[in-house]
Amino acid sequence: xxTKMKTIQWTSAFRYMQKQxxxxxxxxxxxxxxxxxxxxxxxTAYALKSNGNRFWTQTAFRDIEIVAPALxxxxxxxxxxxxxxxxxxxxxxxxxxxxxxxxxxEIDVVSLTERINTVILRDGRMPExxxxxxxxxxVLEELGLSVGDxxxxxxxxxxxxxxxxxCGVVDHADHACLPLQVPGSRYALVMPDAFDMEGLxxxxxxxxxxxxxxxxxxxxxxxxxxxxxxxxxxLDKLSREAVPKENGTLLESFLTWFSSFLxxxxxxxxxxxxxxxxxxxxxSASENVATIGATFAAVFVIVGAFVIYASIRRMVKEDRTRxxxxxxxxxxxxxxxxxxxxxxxxxxxxxxxxGVAIGYSVIQPILLSIYGxxxxxxxxxxxxxxxxxxxxxxxxxxxxxxAVLIACADLLRQSAVRLMNDRSSESCVNTFKxxxxxxxxxxxxxxxxxxxxWRPILVIVVGIAGCMALLVTGFTxxxxxxxxxxxxxxDVERYDLKIRFAPDAGEGETPTQDKIRSALKDxxxxxxxxxxxxxxxxDRDCLFFAGGRMNSGELICVDPExxxxxxxxxxxxxxxxxVPSSETGIYIHLRTAETAELAPGDRLTLYxxxxxxxxxxxxxxxxxxxxxxxxxxxSAFESVFREEPDCNCFWVRCGKTKPEDIQSALKGxxxxxxxxxxxxxxxxxxxxxxxxxxxxxxxxxxLMAAGVLTNLIYLQFYRKKRTLVIMRINxxxxxxxxxxxxxxxxxxxxxxxxxxxxxxxLLARIIIGLMEGRQLxxxxxxxxxxxxxxxxxxxxxxxxxxxxxxxxxxxxxxTDDVMIR
Amino acid sequence: xxxxxxxxxxLKDAVKTFSSGTDIVRALDGLSLxxxxxxxxxxxxxxxxxxxxxxNIIGCMDELTEGHLEAFGRDMTKLSGKERxxxxxxxxxxxxxxxxxxxELSALExxxxxxxLVPDPLSPRDMLRSVGLEAESNRLPGQLSGGQQQKxxxxxxxxxxxxxxxxxxxxxxxxLGSAKEVLSILIRTIRENPESTDKKxxxxxxxxxxxxxxIADRVIVMRSGRVSDIYLPPDPCGAEALEW
Lengths: 821, 244
What we know:
- Chain A is of the alpha+beta class.
- In chain A, strands 3-4-9-6-8-7 form a 6-stranded mixed barrel. In chain A, strands 14-15-19-16-18-17 form a 6-stranded mixed barrel.
- The longest helix of chain A has 54 residues, at 676-729.
- In chain B, the strands form 2 sheets. In chain B, strands 6-7-8-3-9-10 form a 6-stranded mixed sheet, with helices on both faces. In chain B, strands 2-1-4-5 form a 4-stranded antiparallel sheet, covered by helices on one side.
- The chains are: A alpha+beta, B alpha/beta.
- At the A-B interface, α1, α8 and α11 of A face α2 and α3 of B.
């Protein structure tokens, strides 16, 4: 008997779902889209980290890197190896060099290691002699080289050999990201013997360290970061424990000890994984993706819950009398509700399961292929997380069940008599005079409808607002990112060319700097002219310690008076340009100030090259969008570092001269020329992934809007169907009945769109705030164009659906059955 | 010595009020009545006299404002919601004017659905056969006439062997021929019940059609929420003899 009951109840439930297939399909689609977007993006976030971890495990990536301006001796290495928590340490020799050739390229020459920070061979073979080298693919590509070619490396007298045969192509542990994501020099890897060991007294510039227990570690986990942080701190403390000089005087030893006691001097810099720009880039990418996905998913869930609620509510209200009959027959509340729970949960669960499949097999691969352009290992491997998936399915089912419960609970609580006898309060037409002319006589009817039917109207408004918010969020993010890049090159960086060179490069007696000046003068440019000229400055990479961690930056040393026209410093609060004036302080950009919690007057430790380290005061903050520029006047540099900064960079405004003409004029000189357009394209490359994700989510939101609008407009129409038929019976014209339906639509859409714009702009602001990195400040203003596009999409769908509804209204006949059965 | 038959349902001083804006409407105003096993009781009266309210009260579809209801030995005024549902589930069969069949289930499935509520129902197929609709077992309600639908509703009500059958204007929407068929089935169900006297099912039939009251054992006339008259039909007959 129980089996029979269940069978018959299931039969009834499935037949009912077939009858309500439009609503069930709507619920299924909404659940599908929400889970597709959320899990697809979430899996991608996990995959980005997982693929990074896999690469670093393959290459035995260092947990700690030690950079020693004063070089590391074997004793230092022994002390490092003996530190608690250190499993192994290897020495690394490293020097910056220039590859001589058609286009001079800056390159880092690094010694091969055996156990830590190793390479993955892509082509060729490992070096067998000191005269052979391995190159990373970006170097090969930039120089147009292949295995077997010869290159000449010009350096600052650290290399014993200068000509190398390229014997292989490798990926190195330090560069999981390609230059598109993490710009900067790439490596030429040589055997340690290639370095002048005698000249270096067998001391090395760096050490790479593995800590105990990190073999298969998840480098993004808190546990790993805590573990490595502890070892980092020990090594940092060791770096401050001075080693008395051999044969030094007692006074020298005392002064050295006193200096380390004060904590002022470090023998080396200790960098954990955060010191790796690739690590930071992969982590940021993963977290940005996860943030966007989670935030959109929250809105998807709200909209989805409302759709389920609205659909079930409509069904239950349609079935008032039937529910009353069932109660009269002796059915219990849970037995009556079973059908509605089935109608709500089965489509939702089906949609979610399909969404899991699409998220894993479609969305994730699309996103991984977008991000794959940034990593040396490309696409990597997709991931699937069972626990997360089960959690999502459970939560989704729970939300659907709650929505169904809320939708039908109050009706199910009502007595059988009330359910069977009470009619909807919708039919208030009889209280108004009819006006068959079709003019607008039913203002009071519309108002009454809005008042009495406020719950379903609220559902419709929230549904429209939710979809609109998602669209506005997606388009706002896309437009903000695009404007960010544009503003960087209109409001901040105004030069057309950046010419970099080694300060002491140049053959013969004429320094490279003079040759560049000469070429620019020949191009009819004037020094320090604002629109067609150039300025000379120092532009070098640096590190600074602030906010509890090491950060990278780009130090610009230049006379402040000449900056105008080339690089605009604007006050973040007012937007007004200002000229930096500090004699001793450094100007940092807004995101640095925000992330490192620095304000004017604070101090940070600045590290330049491997030899210059100073505590410096923050003089001011300027607004910037992309990049890690820090501005220091030449006099301030001299004041702090007690030496003049070496000029190694020209910023050029070409004016009427074509940039390519200037590039041609500089051909043959040992310089690297970068055009602003190339840099802009590079930045667009960084942000393209985020841009595409925002676009993908906006697309999903548009699809959801179509499904939601279909459901809600149908709900709206169904509420009025009885009234519409009675209106027709009483003589209202077709236009009159249509107007009654459409005016409420106008109201709900207007309110929904306005709320959606507000909500979407706020949501976008939140996501943008979470997406911004240490060197990325996205435009935070509202995007009216995004509002317009979103509203257009919504209205387009809505108009199409209303056309269908209006056609149904046109087909209504006075003989249509108005009784709910 | 014969024992007097005890009423299966006893209503005493029943009051049921409804609020309508600021007014209070007394749908039942001190109604007292007893229903006996195996009897056909017709309840008639003008619109608004409280007939349907009376039916809803004894069927536990609604609760009394004041007064006392006893059914099958239990004080119904003290029952919980679940107990009231169980009473309707096991002891009461409803037949409505508008049939209220489940549109997506076939005739047989509609009867089987209610049969599934009780531990020892009659055979749904037998019930359909008893109302002459075995051939229509697989048809949906929308494919059947009003009379056929009402017969299915009767079969549905009877399949769970109710002790109290409540019919609210069961023939109001039917033509004369169909109405007679429906009433015949109801009469046959009560009269041919093989149960012992005190376990026989009773039929309470609400109707505004005085002609139909001729099939009843007793006729109750209600006015303003009270019993205004109780009488035995002066000219009793079977359903086939009715004419209106």
